[in-house]
Amino acid sequence: MAHLTRYSLTSESRRLILKPELLQINQLSAGYGPLRVLHEIDLTVRAGERIGLVGLNGHGKTTMMRAITHMTGWQQGSIRFNGVEIGGNRSQGAGRRTPGLVKMGIAVAPQGDAIFPGLSVRKHLECGAHTKLAWRERRQRIAQIYKIFPALDPLQDALVGKLSGGERRMVSIGRMLMADAKLYLIDEPSLGLAPKISKRVMEALWALPVEGAMIIAEQNVSLLTGRADRIVGMHAGRMRGDVGHVELV
Questions:
Q1: CA 147, chain centre distance (Å)
Q2: How far apart are CA 200 and CA 112, in angstroms?
Q3: Under 8 Å CB-to-CB from 27, ≥6 apart: which residues?
Q4: CA 161 to CA 115: how far, in whole Å?
Q5: H helix intervals, the chain
């Protein structure tokens, strides 16, 4: 069980309260086949807000991100993005609406990177340029990714399958940043990485020059504490509210 302790809002968080709501999730349930993973989830994310989503493996963090992008087996409930309803009831057709959601401004760095081992770093980054504008500006955007992650610059033509875990994670996040996104969903960025590499990747995330909101699913609470505007707990597919300190037991 996750033991949660309330915390007071920072001055930055109070400022964000005045910003418009970008994502509104109401009574969202979702799962795969007969398995229900999410149970009546409610969550609101404001423009520019960076939210840490914490909880044990298997308690619904990844499924919530997959539900937002219509990648679960089934789902029901309301999801409003930038004022447009993108949720609703669905019993099949996983992934059919995902390309349209990407064009609306939702970008994902999935758990485990989801890379193509035979493609180069540059080709991977180009894969993230989904919109016409992003494709026209792909060279400038790739150059910006190399500034964010300098370790990738000398590896532009290297096959991603031969990179280290930390380098692959940088490629995955860089590919996400190529899109014209208003909402970034980042799933377990420190998973499987050495502590020093995890810290380096997270520091790069916090320093990103983006205006969009972020939801970062992460088990290592210390990487979120003091940096996220809010930390939200999830246990057994249910939200446990905004928390400041979480012990995963």
A1: 21
A2: 17
A3: 40, 41, 42, 76, 77, 78
A4: 8
A5: 11-17, 61-68, 98-104, 121-127, 132-136, 138-148, 165-177, 195-206
Cα pseudo-dihedral 166, 169, 170, 171, rounded to 10: 130
Q: What is the DSSP letter of 162?
A: G
When mean pLDDT is compared across 26-35, 39-48, 102-111, 240-249, the lowest value belongs to 240-249
User: Is the model's pLDDT at 240 over the cut of 80?
Assistant: yes
Residue of 68, 94, 77 whose CA lies nearest to 183: 68
When pLDDT is cut at 50, 70 and 90, the band that residue 7 belongs to is very low
Residue 78 tokens, joined: 């309301």
In this structure, which amino acid lies at residue 190? S
Give the Å distances, CA to CA, from 178 to 41, 42, 110, 123. 29, 29, 15, 12
Q: Quick one: tokens of 238?
A: 């249910």
- CA distance from start to end of the chain: 6
What tokens does 226 get?
A: 């003091």
Mean pLDDT over 232-237 rounds to 93
Pick the CATH number of 1-105+217-249 from 3.40.50.300, 3.40.309.10, 3.40.5.10, 2.40.50.140: 3.40.50.300
pLDDT at 244 over 60: no
Q: Considering only CA atoms, which of 207, 231, 236 is closest in space to residue 219?
A: 231
